[in-house]
Amino acid sequence: MEKLTGHKKIKTAVFISGRGSNLDNLIKFSNTKKSPIIIDLVIADKKALGLKYAAKYKIKKKIINYKNNRIAEKKILLILEKKKIKFICLAGFMKVLSANFIKRFKEKIINIHPSYLPKYKGLNTSLRALNNNEKFSGCTVHYVGTKIDSGKIIIQKKINITKKETETSLDKKIIQEEHKLYPAAIMKIFN
To answer: Which residues are catalytic?
Structure first.
């Protein structure tokens, strides 16, 4: 990964599908002096709630119709090229990127996942951990590879599961840790 020279921040896009709490957190982080990235674009696969943060911080946003994956990715690649985006953060983006797309941004796409990988790839991670009587769950920031939630791990955080834990309470604990972990992963990559 390229080192930062001077004060030039790396132009970054965040891809979302949901409420955008990690997007909000990443924007706040990117606006700090120490941040190596600047968020220049938000891409969503639908009218996601999180788009309100792009509007709030006056960041360009695009909603991409995903009826056809190949066409959608072609559109996204053109936008990324035009905006000179060098780095991508997935934050609750519910579409799987093609091997071709990933290759274009080799080791320049990262994702945050609400489990302590390699356990519980995919969806409903907290519920699955609870159903299996796990002692802990967690969150992981990893590079995006061609297999779901299987890219090289950058940083992880373990979260204890209490006896009275519910899916909602565990999700809440995980998202709070994600908000610390995502910026820490970005600092680790660029320093």
So the answer is: 113
